[in-house]
Amino acid sequence: MLDPATTALLRAVLDEVCEKVSRTETGARAHVASKILEAATRGETSLDSLKQVGREALSEAPTMWR
């Protein structure tokens, strides 16, 4: 379980990375969220690192999710 500060950071990163992705595109957002969460559970908790992970996840998401 992540602490509240880390959870807030992950949400902020997700919102920033997916700012141009519609909230209705739940598949793409879920894919990005899962990759960001995986990185955080591995200990990657810096803002820049999480943003990079999120951007990479968004770019590799199937095109039907974008």
Overall body shape = globular
Q: Quick one: biggest sheet?
A: none
State the end-to-end CA separation: 30 Å
pLDDT averaged residue by residue: 91
Distinct helical segment count: 3
Pick out the low-confidence regions. Answer: none
Number of domains: 1
Radius of gyration: 11 Å
Give the SSE string: HHH
| Beta-strand share of residues | under 5%
Determine the structural class based on helices, strands and strand pairing. mainly alpha
- Counting DSSP E segments of at least 2 residues, the number of strands comes to 0
Into which percent range does the helicity of residues fall?
A: 55-70%
In brief, what are we looking at here?
The chain is an all-alpha fold. It has three helices and no strands.
